[in-house]
Amino acid sequence: MIEYGRSIKWYNNYRDEVEFSEYNKFDFMQIWFVKGELAIDKVLSPKEQYVLNSKFPVIIHALYDIDDYDKYNDELIRILKYLNHKEVIIHPVCESIPINSETIYTLAENIYKTNQLLKGSNIKLYIENNSVIDRINYTPEDLKIVFDRNPDVELILDIAHIDDYSHLQKILEVKFPKCLHIADKRFSVEHEHLPIGQGELDFKLIFQNYLKGYDGKIIFEVVDTDEEIIKSKNIIERIVK
Question: What is the reported pTM?
Answer without folding.
Answer: 0.97
